[in-house]
Design goal:
Elements (H helix, E strand, L loop, with lengths): L3 E8 L3 E8 L7 E8 L5 E6 L3 E6 L4 E5 L4 E6 L6 E7 L3 E6 L3 E6 L5 E6 L5 E6 L5 E6 L3 E6 L4 E7 L6 E4 L5 E6 L2 E6 L4 E7 L4 E6 L4 E6 L3 E6 L4 E7 L5 E9 L2 E8 L3 E7 L9 E7 L4 E7 L3 H10 L6 H9 L3 E2 L20 E4 L2 E4 L2
Parallel strand pairs: 7-29
Antiparallel strand pairs: 1-2, 1-28, 2-3, 4-5, 5-6, 6-7, 8-9, 9-10, 10-11, 12-13, 13-14, 14-15, 16-17, 17-18, 18-19, 20-21, 21-22, 22-23, 24-25, 25-26, 26-27, 30-31
């Protein structure tokens, strides 16, 4: 893993924050890397791949950032409503959901909308892609949990859950998934497609994150983060993370330990060291940073090892303000065309060559 990570957070004040954290030092300090007044409404979702970060907002737009070049890469304008959820599948695809009920699949190669699916009669409140890339789960305000076949872009299964769920997540191994309804965690098994257990949180659940296949971090409308052992189907630990309610949780692996990252309405982003073992202990604080904003969402960007090596070989070459301005001037907001099929596993199918416009010139599409 690279010797640093970037903490990306959005807030009610329409700003996106980026903080770089060195992970090879004893004391972790978050250094402000960038601040961007990205949207015209509050930032509602953020996701990161090994190159790009994408933010979604109540202004109905998604903004792209190329983290390698540290420039805004463009905007995706397809949803007619607030963006509610975003998730990358590897480095090749992005999935987005919105209040218009659409589930959209985007190719990160040319940022084309490969498929636009009317997923729910109401809002899409959450989505999650299976580790295989073949399936996706969505929940919405029509009181349904839907399974999507991403090979053909069609609905594979619909479950009526009688209430509006607002979070759904696959486990890292794809063997189980969790559906959140208000303060309730429903655990499902993939093989049997049946509900295996239900756990109650004292407060409404605002965010969850699988630390590994068995440990689930749960944040609610209070200052407490609770850890659940989904294999044993019980709560195993809880700790006070912030002064007010926790809005977002993410995590990443570092050597033998895991690092839990939390963001709160109190403006703080905190990093916690967690060592999963038989007797799970509450995590210890590694570092924190005060953004002074009311945070709404969080993602951890981890650069690829190959890119990190290349960056070190080139040395710390400063980017001038003129270069950044020129890059941003090339960015255009366009409504991207849609295609009929979506295949997440293989992009090798030959396609008919077409002309496309790049920087005002026509060239053959690759």
């Amino acid at each position: 893993m690279a010797a640093f990570v970037e903490l990306i957070a959005g807030c009610y004040e329409q700003v996106v924050f980026g903080y770089r954290v060195r992970t090879d030092q004893e004391e972790w300090r978050a250094k402000a890397d960038f601040t961007h007044h990205a949207h015209t409404a509050s930032v509602s979702a953020v996701a990161a791949s090994d190159r790009f970060v994408v933010t979604g907002s109540k202004d109905e737009t998604m903004l792209l950032y190329d983290m390698n070049k540290k420039v805004e890469h463009g905007a995706l304008l397809h949803h007619d409503g607030s963006i509610t959820c975003l998730e990358f599948y590897g480095a090749t695809h992005l999935l987005s959901g919105g209040e218009d009920g659409l589930l959209c699949v985007w190719s990160t190669k040319k940022w084309e909308c490969l498929k636009s699916i009317k997923a729910h009669k109401g809002h899409v409140t959450s989505l999650s892609v299976h580790p295989s890339g073949k399936l996706a789960l969505t929940v919405g305000t029509d009181k349904t949990l839907r399974t999507w076949n991403l090979i053909n872009g069609r609905s594979a299964f619909i479950r009526n859950i009688k209430q509006n769920a607002h979070i759904v997540r696959w486990s890292p191994d794809g063997e189980k998934y969790v559906v959140v309804i208000h303060d309730q965690l429903d655990l499902y098994d993939l093989q049997t497609a049946s509900l295996t257990s239900t756990l109650k949180n004292p407060k409404r659940i605002s965010a969850i994150n699988f630390v590994n296949n068995s440990i689930l971090a749960v944040a609610g409308d209070d200052e407490i983060v609770r850890l659940c052992d989904v294999a044993k189907e019980k709560w195993v630990c809880e700790f006070k993370a912030h002064e007010t309610r926790v809005k977002a949780v993410d995590s990443f692996k570092m050597d033998d330990d895991h690092v839990l990252v939390t963001a709160s309405n109190d403006g703080f982003i905190k990093m916690w060291k967690l060592r999963p073992n038989d007797e799970l202990e509450c995590p210890t604080l590694l570092g924190e940073v005060n953004t002074t904003a009311r945070l709404t969402c969080l993602a951890v960007w981890k650069p690829s090892t190959q890119r990190q090596t290349t960056e070190e070989e080139k040395g710390a070459k400063a980017t001038t303000s003129q270069e950044v301005a020129e890059a941003l001037l090339k960015t255009k907001r366009v409504r991207l065309r849609t295609h009929e099929e979506v295949i997440l596993e293989d992009e090798s199918n030959p396609k008919k060559k077409k002309k496309r416009k790049v920087d005002g010139k026509l060239e053959e599409a690759k």
